[in-house]
Amino acid sequence: MAGAHVKYRHLSRSSAHRQALLRNLVTSLIKNETIHTTYPKAKEAQRLAEKLITLSKRDTETARRSAQGILYTPDQILPKLFGEIRERYANRPGGYTRVLRTEPKDQYSQAPSAILELVDGPKDMRFAMTAATVARDREQKTESTDLTKKNMDKVTRFRKDGMRTFEDMVAKLRDMKFTAGAINPKEWKKLDR
């Protein structure tokens, strides 16, 4: 039937190829905590990643076996998933990942690109960008906008020692003079998160 509601994106692949692609993306996401891919792939991988993190929060043998069936390198990734990531999201009721739209990754195809990242992690882009905005506002002695205040609340709400960690990041960014413009990706390693 033409025009019917579709349960998921087919991504122009067969079923086995699509499942392999999503498993690979989710394995890379858990391993690196952030991936850069096309927007439709990121949205589909986000669904699978959310289910996988929910399984890790259950921490039962059945959940471990289900997660093992999804991940490509379970012997390397399962300890991180059922250890560090499970503890990070123990109090969060959902929304473990974030999709940020970006400029096209490839200048030839011009496909809509996105970054899929785990929230409240060491590579959380919104956390760093909000801290840079607050540092700039404090240096210019202006009050933060309502949007910046909402983002401050979002990035610190479920993070362990949220406000203290946020203030430390703001201080580091002010010391590194990131407040004048955008964050240079080459300087991220200096932040030592």
Radius of gyration: 19 Å
Distance between the termini: 51 Å
Q: Tell me the total number of β-strands.
A: 3
The sequence of SSEs as H and E is HEHHHEEHHH
Amount of beta strand: 5-15%
Strand order of the largest sheet: 1-3-2
What would your notes on this structure say?
- The protein is mostly helical.
- Helices cover 53% and strands 9% of the residues.
- It contains 7 helices and 3 strands; from the N terminus they run αβαααββααα.
- It has helices at residues 15-32, 39-58, 61-70, 74-88, 125-139, 146-156, 162-175, and strands at 34-38, 97-102, 113-118.
- The chain has a 3-stranded antiparallel sheet with strand order 1-3-2, covered by helices on one side.
- Helix 2 (39-58) runs antiparallel to helix 3 (61-70) and helix 3 packs across helix 4 (74-88).
- The N and C termini lie far apart (51 Å).
- The mean pLDDT is 87.
Descriptive tags:
3-stranded antiparallel sheet, 193 residues, mainly alpha, 7 helices
What's the SSE blueprint?
Elements: H1 15-32, E1 34-38, H2 39-58, H3 61-70, H4 74-88, E2 97-102, E3 113-118, H5 125-139, H6 146-156, H7 162-175
Antiparallel strand pairs: 1-3, 2-3
Helix pairs in contact: 1-2, 2-3, 3-4, 5-6, 5-7
Summarize the structure.
It contains 7 helices and 3 strands; from the N terminus they run H-E-H-H-H-E-E-H-H-H. The chain is 53% helix and 9% strand.
